[in-house]
Specification:
By secondary structure, the protein is of the alpha/beta class. The protein has 18 helices and 23 strands.
Length: 492
């Protein structure tokens, strides 16, 4: 692609006459530079791409995009830069997103792109939208925390919201393969880092806003601002679909140019839902006055299913077809997955890793089977928001009969320090019903073996993850495998 096509709309500052050269690739990692590529030097948190400009030029970069003039001078002073073209931009992070979209032919305009943001429910909602539309006969793509899909081809996901080059290259492949829709998670960090700048969304969904990522955003107000940026960027021909039962539901859309569509489980809205019956096997919902049985459980999943219904109907799907489709959907991996064991023990695996998510899951399990003992096992991630640790303990104390505090992804923090932070949220009565076991596998074994017959054991925090990160090492750790092995031992 020609240089002028790639830099269009990026705020690029050109000095003198610049040859309109052809560019073979766009990259922000100097290790991926090939002859004829454009290297975009982005200031990151762990490293600064400006420090690798010299490396990129030596590897054959035909163009270098930068924002720091002094850094450029340090990197190129005294070296022969050959025919390389240097382009200054106000923000290389913003330029990366715009240029990536341009390089791949603005693929978000070639399909219907639907994004969702919020604290909880993002993965479930986009995954089930992808499954629903696939079942309705559409060729679809998915960009989520668990995995990315182009049609039925699966790709591992690294971040909730990938980098702009990955996003646009995958969207381009989706469009080339005839995908009509793509459903995408949009994180607050992804918004703040402008990873979705340059994308054209047909619909944006707001789920809810609770405590999370304050290690990164520092304040709740900043967290909210980054979420709201998504709706501020929606065009006038898009839809802003919002949960008005959340106190920030209307805040999100107050400045949007998009058409606002509301959904609610508690009040008057464009689309409404009520839970009529519920069991471990599913729940009976009344959506817009029509009943449908769904295999998911929990009030939070009623909201997720209503968001899916609202989105599909807003985009033109027939309500009756959508309701039938909802009845056939199964939960996303690691979201309230239930495993039945000896003597009517039920182990529930869920990704809940925020106070609100943990409360939703525990309340669901308590409401469905109030007569069963409820045991809650959880930990908290290291190098992440410390303020939520005691809050999660307080939630567990209020709703669980027994608590086991253990490790999650401790990363470079000491597990015992994380557990100490968690335990600070328990009072004397909470500590009396709590065990702390650092080894998560041993904690799971203890929770199951010591549980009375007929108990429900919640394993919270890992969900779909099949690993644990201890230090900088990523170790295989699959809770479903562990639980199945323990159940087999108990049957012998």
């Amino acid at each position: 692609m020609k240089l002028h096509e790639i830099i269009a709309g990026s705020g690029a500052e050109m000095k003198g006459t610049v040859p309109d050269i052809g560019i073979t690739a766009v990259c922000s990692d100097s290790r991926k530079v090939v002859p004829g590529a454009m290297f975009i030097a982005v200031k990151g948190f762990a490293s600064d791409g400006h420090d690798y400009i010299g490396t990129a030029v030596r590897m054959g970069a035909a163009a270098v995009v930068y924002q720091d003039e002094d850094a450029l001078a340090r990197q190129t002073g005294g070296m022969d830069t050959g025919a390389a073209v240097f382009i200054r931009v106000p923000s290389s992070r913003h330029a990366l997103a715009i240029m990536a979209a341009n390089f791949y032919g603005n693929p978000s305009r070639r399909l219907t792109l639907v994004g969702i943001t919020g604290t909880n429910g993002k993965t479930t909602t986009v995954t089930l939208l992808y499954r629903l539309y696939t079942a309705l006969g559409y060729h679809c793509g998915l960009l989520s925390t668990i995995a990315n899909y182009i049609g039925d081809r699966r790709f591992e996901a690294v971040n909730t919201t990938s980098d702009p080059i990955t996003i646009n290259s995958m969207l381009a492949e989706m469009a080339d393969e005839g995908c009509g829709y793509c459903f995408m998670e949009v994180s607050s960090i992804g918004m703040e880092q402008e990873r979705v700048a340059g994308l054209k969304f047909k619909a944006g969904i707001f789920s809810n806003l609770t405590h999370d990522h304050l290690d990164y955003h520092k304040t709740f107000a900043e967290y909210l601002r980054c979420k709201k940026m998504f709706f501020d960027m929606l065009p006038s021909d898009a839809y802003a679909i919002t949960n008005i039962d959340d106190r920030n539901g209307m805040v999100m859309v107050q400045n949007t140019k998009a058409q606002t569509v509301t959904y609610s489980c508690r009040s008057i809205a464009d689309h409404t839902c009520r839970v009529i019956e519920e069991s471990f096997d599913g729940m009976l919902l009344k959506i817009d006055g029509k009943e449908t049985w769904c295999r998911l459980i929990g009030q939070h999943n009623a909201y997720n299913l209503l968001a899916i219904y609202t989105t599909a109907v807003t985009l033109g799907a027939a309500p009756e077809e959508v309701l039938v489709g909802l009845s056939r959907l199964e939960s996303a991996p690691g979201r309230l997955e239930t495993m039945r064991g000896p003597e009517d023990r039920a182990v529930v695996i869920d990704y809940a890793h925020t106070p609100d998510a943990l409360e939703n899951v525990l309340r669901t399990l308590r409401d469905i089977a109030p007569e069963r003992m409820l045991i809650c096992l959880f930990g908290c991630g290291g190098d992440r928001d410390r303020t939520k640790r005691p809050e999660m303990a307080a939630v567990a104390q209020s709703l669980a009969d027994r608590i086991i505090v253990t490790s999650d992804n401790s990363r470079t923090e000491n597990t015992s320090d994380i557990i100490r932070d968690i335990m600070s949220g328990l009072d004397a009565s909470g500590k009396a019903k709590c065990l702390s076991i650092e080894d998560r596998e041993q904690a799971i074994r203890t929770a199951i073996i010591t549980a009375p017959p007929g108990s429900t054991i919640l394993l919270a925090g890992k969900g779909h993850e099949t690993y644990q990160i201890i230090g900088t090492e990523k170790r295989h750790f699959d809770e479903k495998e562990i639980v199945a092995h323990i159940f087999d031992e108990m049957k012998k």
